[in-house]
Specification:
Layout lengths: L4 H11 L3 H5 L2 H9 L3 E4 L4 E4 L2 H8 L14 H9 L2 H14 L8 H12 L4 H6 L1 H18 L4 H6 L2 H10 L6 H13 L5 H10 L7 H11 L1
Antiparallel strand pairs: 1-2
Helix pairs in contact: 6-13, 9-11, 12-13
């Protein structure tokens, strides 16, 4: 297992969402892969796997792992200890909320939620979205073409998924900016630190105007 100081430093930068580290992490992956293929990050603590067969073994369920590691276990305890005391209670509330996500559930509860979610992703339903997806792509590409320049990631790739998901779930397109703000804050929560905790706390309020819609959708899927 790779445990040298330089790898530990680079993993800390990566898991801290350092822009340089996350924009091009592949040399770090290769260093770990060429060594033992795995590295234990003391700053987590966490085990980083870089070889296909190891990842496949873990993902197949051969190794008993829980999906809610930021709420329970060694990583959760270490993360909570690093957070300033005034933010610990709000952090636990946020983690309990995130624990409702399908991706944070295990076993039978995960399967139950997957069965519910699958009703929104039938082949027929996806086919029905073809026209609206084309309209969204054209709308997002138009200013890029008219201006003669643009950033495909920020001007198209970042914005298109929110539009498609709002169509898929039946959420009004007028709410998509609020959903974008909320989802960005949740995505940043990949790194649990005082800044991201505060960001999610601030963004939590944007879900309130769309909660009636979410309640209606939940009822129709159960």
């Amino acid at each position: 297992m790779t445990n040298d100081a330089s790898v530990e430093e680079d993993l800390t930068a990566f898991f801290s969402a350092d822009p340089d580290a996350i924009s091009w992490p592949y040399p770090l992956y290769e260093r770990i892969r060429q060594g033992a293929g795995a590295a234990r990050w003391a700053g987590g603590p966490a085990l980083v796997l870089t070889r296909y067969h190891d990842v496949k073994t873990v993902m197949s369920g051969a190794v008993p792992l829980a999906n809610n590691a930021y709420r329970y276990g060694a990583l959760a305890s270490a993360t909570l200890a690093r957070i300033p005391a005034p933010l610990r209670e709000p952090l636990l509330g946020l983690l309990d909320f995130e624990g409702l996500f399908m991706s944070r559930k295990d076993g039978a509860e995960h399967l139950r939620l997957r069965r519910i979610a699958s009703k929104a992703f039938t082949a027929r339903r996806i086919a029905q979205l073809t026209e609206s997806i084309s309209l969204h792509v054209n709308e997002l590409l138009t200013p890029i073409v008219e201006n003669g320049h643009g950033d495909i990631k920020t001007d198209l790739a970042n914005l298109l998924p929110t539009r498609v998901i709002t169509d898929l779930l039946g959420v009004p397109q007028s709410d998509r900016d609020m959903i974008w703000q909320w989802s960005e804050a949740v995505a940043a929560f990949f790194t649990v630190d005082p800044a991201t905790v505060t960001g999610v706390m601030n963004a939590n309020g944007v879900t309130r105007p769309v909660r009636p819609t979410l309640t209606r959708m939940s009822s129709s899927l159960v």
